[in-house]
Structure formats: C-alpha cells, structure tokens
Amino acid sequence: MGIIGWILLGLLAGIIAKVLMPGRDPGGIIITMLIGIVGALLGGWLGKVIFGVDSVDGFFELSTWIAAIVGSLVLLGVYRLVAGRRHS
C-alpha cells in the first residue's frame, strides 16, 4: 500500500476512532486527522510486532482497517490524557 493509501486510511480511521470515542478533544479537526494517520501506522506496526501477522495486506482488507482503527483509538486516548492535563 502506498503513502497516499496510508494517508487516506489514516484519515478515515481517525474519523471512525472519533465516532467510537466521542468527547471533547483539546485539538481540532487537523489534530484528529494527524492522530488518525499516525494511529494507522502505529496499529499496523503493533500488529506486526505483537501478533507476528502482516496486518497491512491491502486497503480493503479487514485486518488493515482493524489495526488502523485500534491504533487510532490508542493514540487518541493517550493524546487526551497528555493534552487534557496540560490544559487543565
């Protein structure tokens, strides 16, 4: 999967993570999109390292989407913890 595919997957995974984890975020839509992109990369990497599977088979593979969404959820949760404390 190319870099454009990763960016698109990350943007969509960020939107899905935001829907699954609603609430007020310290950042705006740009931060959420960046979290989605980095979360997709993180999810793919963690899937490969922890489970030993290639979770980035292709754009339309279910394992790719699950890895990207889980990575985005993890990163969004960490961001809320770190940025929420700073703004309080």
The Rg value, from CA coordinates, equals 13 Å
The assigned structural class equals mainly alpha
Order of helices and strands: HHH
Major β-sheet profile: none
Determine the N-to-C terminus distance: 40 Å
Percent in helix = over 70%
Shape: globular
Low-confidence parts, pLDDT < 50 over ≥5 residues? none
Helix run count: 3
Count of folded domains = 1
> Number of DSSP strands?
0
- What do the pLDDT scores average to? 78
Beta-strand level of the residues, as a percent range? Answer: under 5%
Features:
88 residues; mainly alpha; globular
Provide a compact summary of the structure.
This protein is mostly helical and 88 residues long. The protein is built from three helices and no strands.
What does this structure look like?
It is built from 3 helices and no strands. It has one domain. The N and C termini lie far apart (40 Å). The radius of gyration is 13 Å and the shape is globular. Helices cover 76% and strands 0% of the residues. The chain is an all-alpha fold and 88 residues long.
